[in-house]
């Protein structure tokens, strides 16, 4: 199973970016999917998470600015980031709890995509 993330880059404060992450491989189904981030010198933290049924939860620091969504048919999770702040600068990682075709359940991670918010 592989997770490939797209959409990072450099954006000015107040701007927007949309991250995408597609899962591929020996997937039977995917439970929760989410986005985490790790800023320099800090621990990785949860940004947003979405269940198969669409229930979401967000870090307090991004509520009202970020929106997570998923397309189950495409095994893809998205993160729409608006009103970006310099403190949102980090490497963003996608995560998925996958049930493989062999019946194993495990967490998988993408390689990360860098988001830099700076003027």
Primary descriptors:
119 residues; mainly beta; seven-stranded mixed beta sheet; 0% helix; 11 strands; four-stranded antiparallel beta sheet
Question: How are the SSEs ordered, and which strands pair?
Answer:
Blueprint: E1 2-6, E2 9-11, E3 17-24, E4 27-38, E5 45-50, E6 56-58, E7 66-71, E8 76-81, E9 90-100, E10 105-109, E11 113-117
Parallel strand pairs: 2-11
Antiparallel strand pairs: 1-3, 3-8, 4-5, 4-9, 5-6, 7-8, 9-10, 9-11
Report, as a whole number of angstroms, the end-to-end distance: 37 Å
Strand content: over 45%
The SSE order reads EEEEEEEEEEE
Instruction: Give me the number of helical elements.
Output: 0
Report the C-alpha radius of gyration, rounded: 14 Å
The gross shape turns out to be: elongated
Which residues form runs of ≥5 with pLDDT under 50?
none
Q: How many E strands?
A: 11
Q: What's the multimeric state? A: single chain
Q: Can you walk through the features of this model?
A:
It is a single chain. The radius of gyration is 14 Å and the shape is elongated. It is built from no helices and 11 strands. The termini are far apart. The chain has strands spanning 2-6, 9-11, 17-24, 27-38, 45-50, 56-58, 66-71, 76-81, 90-100, 105-109, 113-117. The protein is mainly β. Strands 2, 4, 5, 6, 9, 10 and 11 form a 7-stranded mixed sheet that branches. The mean pLDDT is 96.
């Amino acid at each position: 199973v592989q997770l490939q993330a797209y959409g990072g880059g450099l954006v000015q404060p107040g701007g927007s970016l949309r991250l995408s992450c597609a899962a591929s491989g020996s997937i039977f189904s995917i439970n929760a999917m989410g986005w985490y981030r790790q800023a320099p010198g800090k621990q990785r933290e949860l940004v947003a998470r979405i269940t198969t049924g669409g229930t979401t939860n967000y870090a307090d620091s991004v509520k009202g600015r970020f929106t997570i969504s998923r397309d189950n048919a495409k095994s893809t999770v998205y993160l729409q980031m608006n009103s970006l702040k310099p403190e949102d600068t980090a490497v963003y990682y996608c995560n998925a709890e996958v049930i493989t075709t062999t019946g194993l359940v495990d967490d998988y991670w993408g390689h990360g995509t860098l988001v830099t918010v700076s003027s």
